[in-house]
Amino acid sequence: MSKTEDSFVSLGLNPNIIDVLHDFGYKKPLPIQTQCIPYLLSGHDVLGMAHTGSGKTAAFILPLLHNINIHDIFTQGLIVAPTRELAIQIGKVCINFSKYMKNISSVILYGGQSYNIQLNALRKNPHIIICTPGRLIDHLNRGTVNLSKLKTLIIDEADEMLRMGFLEDMEYIIKNIPIQRQTALFSATLPISVRKISHKFMRNPKEIYITENTKMCSDIRQNYWLVRGIAKHEALMRFLETEDFDAAIVFVKTKNTTLEISKILEQFGYNSAALNGDMDQKIRYQTVNRLICGTLDILIATDIAARGLDINRVSLVINYDIPMNSDSYIHRIGRTGRAGRIGKSLLFVERKEYNLLRNIERKIHLNIPEIKHPSSKDLITCRLNKFSKKIAHQLHISNDLEIYRSLLTHIKPTKDLTIENLAAVLLKMAQGNRPLVFSSNLNSENKTIQITQKIKKYKKHTITSISNKSAKIKLKPKINGHMMDIYHISLGSDDGVKKHHIIKVLSNKYYNIHYNKIGNIQLFPDYAIFELNKGLLNNKNFKRLSRARILNKPINLKFLGT
Ligand code: AMP
After folding, report:
1. Is any ligand 1 atom within 6 A of the Cβ of residue 89?
2. First-to-last CA distance in the chain?
3. Which helix (H) or strand (E) segment is 496 a member of?
4. Which atom of ligand 1 lies at the shortest distance from residue 56's CA?
5. What is the domain-level CATH number for residue 146?
6. 418 with 463, same domain?
7. Are 392 and 477 in the same domain?
8. What is residue 400's three-state secondary structure?
9. Which UniProt keywords apply (predicted)?
10. What is the Å distance from ligand 1's center to 8 Cα?
11. For residue 201, what are the domain limits?
12. Quick one: DSSP state of residue 296?
């Protein structure tokens, strides 16, 4: 007896199921399975809270399959899920796990698919129905589905299903199935309101909690990036380019943004596509399949469209727009790090969204570390590395380079073009919309480095000068004979800030700074530096000014030196 058989057998599962688990390489039950399967096999109601990716689908499908009586030709099990994608996914798992169970039948019912296919399957009274609520209600109203002898109801993503919007549908479905039944509810989160509702239609459910932070810590590396310095879409491209990932899902707030971002990414040669609820069902299905089989690498999706997607290739989740609540965050990052694999999640946070970040951290009992966006230098290094790896690979696999070499003389547009120049042109052409170097950004980042070094030098000089009284007199007065204090604010031209905004704030009567006491102002993409007459800001005024905002963003004032 193999190890798989050993551990799953002890749960009491049918040998045909054990065989299929062996095929799938499942070595031992995951915690949610160990805890739920025995209760579900013995007919108990179960309320299971486990994060996505924890193996909860198998936790309810395996005992459901085990309990089906193949000789009873009526629907015995009903699984309801909030989205078509999730219903299809569960349906596939059901088919896979019943591979060795002859004559077991199941059907997936979801909106967007032709009624004929579904009607044909329903006429045969399938043992198991997997569905979205809307299409099931259609069939109930048409009298084309018979749930009068249903034995087990399973609700996946219960937090979503029992919220306003879906709740009415669920109540309607529950009214149309037998009272005497087994009910199982699974969800990544269980808010108190949902828990209360669930108890109304369950009988003494066994509650199973698999804590999410064990998984969060081990399987998913989480970071956040504070939106500053460069625009969000620019940062997105930089992260996508420098992160090592197989497939990625980028979560955005609106359907329009899915289209906007996928268009931008496509323009820059990324293999990406949008996924949102407005898209035709067939296209959504094809898009998800392309991600599964590797012909698509990046999906730009809304929460609802990507709910429950289980794609092992997804090793990176980017929260381009921060989710409005921590539950959505948990759902989103659960799309990666599936079944013990390592995943990575990045969260873009704007300053005004700090409280949402803190809520998420509280919920997952973790501090999410901040990271900087990749600099232009990082990007160039990464592009050059990738490019030279590509060349080395081509060199390694090509055995017809001689032919190309002989063609070189024919395609030289001018006779006097050197081979180096030709190679450079071809390099540029091959790189397309993503240049290997970008002069403007480089300049601005070099400037940033220069100014920081200047300030450091300046401060060092000042400190030594102050400690050495005789040297103090060597400090040069800067403006109109005045020594100047240097201040830094963390807003810059990328935040839309102009010099006049800074002058306006400083000369606000509240801070009482006369404009002729303001010295140089230098604007950089993500910060600005200005000078004020030495000693002009006392402690009280400094505190007041540090609370100021420009374009409704806090300025984060810092004193750099004199
Ligand atoms: P789920 O949480 O149901 O979406 O499952 C997440 C992933 O875990 C899926 O890819 C399953 O194939 C995988 N999985 C489920 N149970 C096991 C197990 N016992 N051993 C290994 N992988 C599993």
Report:
1. no
2. 78
3. none
4. 3
5. 3.40.50.300
6. no
7. no
8. coil
9. ATP-binding, Cytoplasm, Helicase, Hydrolase, Nucleotide-binding, Stress response
10. 14
11. 3-210
12. -
Q: Is 337 in the pocket of ligand 1 (CB under 6 A)?
A: no
What type of residue sits at position 549? R
End of a domain among 179, 210, 241? 210
**What distance in Å separates the CA atoms of residue 539 and residue 486, rounded to the nearest whole number?**
15
Distance CA 155, CA 327 (A): 17
338 lines ligand 1 (CB under 6 A): yes
Would the CB of 336 count as within 6 Å of ligand 1? no
DSSP state of 482: B
Q: Which atom of ligand 1 is nearest to the CA of 8?
A: 19
For residue 55 and ligand 1, the question of a CB distance below 6 A is answered with yes
Q: Are residues 11 and 105 in the same domain?
A: yes
Type and span of the H or E element at 276: none
CA–CA separation, 374 and 188 (whole Å): 32
Locate the ligand 1 atom nearest the alpha carbon of residue 57 and give its number. 3
User: What's the 388 CA to ligand 1 centre distance in angstroms?
Assistant: 38
Site to probe by mutation for ligand 1, drawn from 210, 338, 341, 342 as the one with most ligand atoms within 8 Å of Cβ, is 338
Q: Are residues 102 and 26 in the same domain?
A: yes
Number of domains in the chain: 4
Output the furthest CA–CA distance in the chain (Å, rounded).
102
CA–centroid distance, residue 323 to ligand 1 (Å): 25
Per-residue pLDDT of the chain (562 residues; tens, 9 = 90+): 444 545 888 999 999 999 999 998 898 899 999 999 999 999 999 999 887 678 899 999 999 999 999 999 999 999 999 888 889 989 999 999 999 998 999 999 999 888 999 999 999 999 999 999 999 999 999 999 999 999 999 999 888 888 777 899 999 999 999 999 999 999 877 778 888 888 889 999 999 988 654 444 457 899 999 998 788 998 999 999 899 899 999 999 999 999 999 999 988 888 999 999 888 888 888 999 999 999 999 999 998 888 778 788 899 999 999 998 888 898 899 888 765 667 899 999 998 888 788 888 877 778 889 999 998 888 888 888 888 888 888 888 888 888 888 887 777 777 777 888 888 888 888 877 666 665 444 444 444 444 455 455 544 544 443 344 333 333 334 555 568 888 899 888 878 888 888 888 887 766 767 777 888 888 888 888 888 888 888 888 888 888 888 887 888 888 887 7
The span from the CA of 134 to the CA of 170, in Å, is 10
- Both 250 and 341 in one domain: the answer is yes
**Domain identity same for 388 and 464:** no
Q: Which atom of ligand 1 is nearest to the CA of 89?
A: 4
* Ligand 1: centre distance to CA 338 (Å): 7
201 and 232: one domain? no
Question: What is each CA distance from 25 to 4, 7, 83, 293, in whole angstroms?
Answer: 8, 13, 28, 20
Domain boundary among 210, 234, 267: 210
For residue 503, give the CATH number of its domain.
Answer: 3.30.70.330
53 CA → ligand 1 middle, Å: 6
- Closest ligand 1 atom to residue 30 Cα is 19
